[in-house]
Design brief:
This protein is of the alpha/beta class. It folds into 2 domains: 115 residues, no CATH class; 200 residues, Rossmann fold. The protein is built from 12 helices and 16 strands. The strands form 4 sheets. Strands 3-2-1-4-9-16-15 form a 7-stranded mixed beta sheet, with helices on both faces. A 4-stranded antiparallel beta sheet has the order 7-6-5-8. Strands 12-11-13 form a 3-stranded antiparallel beta sheet. α7 crosses α9 and α11 packs antiparallel against α12. The longest helix is centred in the N-terminal third of the chain and has 17 residues. It binds S-adenosylmethionine (SAM).
Length: 373
């Protein structure tokens, strides 16, 4: 079977899939840490940017929504809901949180998490959003790296898909059909030329074909507003570098990265970095307009992370142990070798203000809500 089918099954099968069955464990005591699973810090830092977008949309009387697609345990939506209700109490009747989640078990977990939410909120299916598209902001943190990818490899006889088979009860790679001309052409459009000898036999990587329909669904969900994608990513030149011999596919369990995607199927997370040029290509094809891209570290510093850090050094405030924990979280979020190296990609639909260049380049935080744990 194609690798994308295997990845879809082991992640999303409602009985056996890592996310689908609800066994996914986020955070320090789980299988992997996401920025959202480290407490309210990410929400606090993103707030000025989210407000800037929502303020620009609030000039009419339309209802506004903050949509999180792939919300995991619901922590980011929960924290942003509380902060938005504090920052704009006049929007309580007007602003709604919308969660789009494929896993029935995680939908249940999110329902528990959002029970005390001051804003109204709901789960929505993509088809429902396509029928009544929202006006607002669509946030996507570490979703795109879990969408199923195809794998391809250079064989002795040319470029082929890498498929999965199960001889004698053991899952393993096997050669799939030759790479079709349109996939080679797609890579060509990003400046990746697979002809010639630059890529050695055995060189393998991923192609995120499923992102194409996701970008279409996301575009159909939003009448007007912004799409903000936060994820591990590389440009096409780095992603498809001849020296990156085995792509970016990785499994995670108990805070450890595992190279073999066939170990413990359904009990580990599987991820592949996003190719930022490919995501932009699919998004623009679906009607999104490109605003810009920064690393998470740069973005958070522009949103005032340094000021939060310096406030922690001042006398008074929370006890020392709490301040040290907050400091560690802030530093992890900007560590260029970790979460700080994440890419933020911003797109819009039918929005002219604020000018795209102003987004992702905020000088000072516009609001200061103290971080609380
Ligand atoms: C790696 S987790 C990220 C969770 C959260 N955003 C965070 O940063 O902690 C990926 C999330 O996306 C969900 N997901 C995966 N594919 C999805 C899809 N096609 N539609 C909606 N949710 C999806 C998973 O079930 C899970 O909640």
């Amino acid at each position: 079977m194609p690798f994308s089918t295997y990845m879809e099954w082991v992640l999303q099968d409602p009985e056996h899939g890592y996310y689908g069955s609800g066994q996914a464990a986020f955070g320090r005591r789980g299988d992997f840490v996401t920025a959202a699973s480290m407490g309210p810090t990410l929400a606090t830092l993103l707030l000025p940017q989210v407000l800037q977008c929502l303020d620009a949309l609030a000039t009419t009387t339309d209802a506004l929504s903050l949509v999180e697609w792939g919300p995991g345990d619901g922590g980011l939506s929960h924290d942003l809901g509380i902060l938005l209700a504090q920052a704009r109490p006049q929007w309580r009747q007007r602003l709604q949180l919308v969660l789009v989640e494929a896993s029935p078990a995680l939908r249940q977990r999110q329902t528990g998490r959002l029970q005390q939410q001051p804003l109204s909120w709901r789960h929505a299916h993509p088809t429902e959003l396509a029928a009544t598209p929202i006006i607002g902001v669509l946030l996507v943190n570490e979703l795109l790296d879990t969408l199923p990818v195809e794998r391809f490899t250079r064989g002795e006889d040319g470029w082929r898909w890498q498929w999965v088979h199960c001889p004698h009860g053991h899952l393993d790679w096997c050669p799939g059909p030759p790479l079709p001309a349109e996939s080679l052409a797609l890579l060509e459009t990003m400046g990746i030329h697979l002809t010639g000898d630059a890529f050695p036999v055995g060189w393998s990587s991923e192609l995120a074909l499923s992102q194409r329909s996701w970008c279409g669904s996301a575009a159909a969900a939003l009448q007007r507003g912004w799409l903000w994608c936060l994820d591990y990513g590389h440009s096409a030149q780095r992603y498809y570098n001849p020296q990156r011999l085995d792509g970016t596919l990785m499994a995670y369990t108990q805070q450890k990265a595992v190279g073999n995607p066939f170990l413990q199927p359904g009990q580990m997370d599987l991820t592949a970095h996003i190719c930022t040029d490919l995501l932009r290509h699919w998004a623009e094809e679906a009607g999104w307009e490109w605003c810009g891209e920064v690393s998470q570290g740069q973005g958070l510093l522009a949103l005032g992370l340094a000021q939060h850090l310096s406030r922690l050094g001042q006398a008074g405030g929370p006890p020392l142990a709490q301040r040290l924990t907050q400091r560690e979280v802030l530093l992890r979020l900007v560590d260029p070798a970790g979460l700080g190296g994440f890419r933020w990609l911003l797109f819009h639909r039918s929005c002219s203000t604020p000018a795209p260049g102003e987004l992702l380049a905020l000088g000072e935080p516009q609001l200061s809500i103290s971080l609380s744990y």
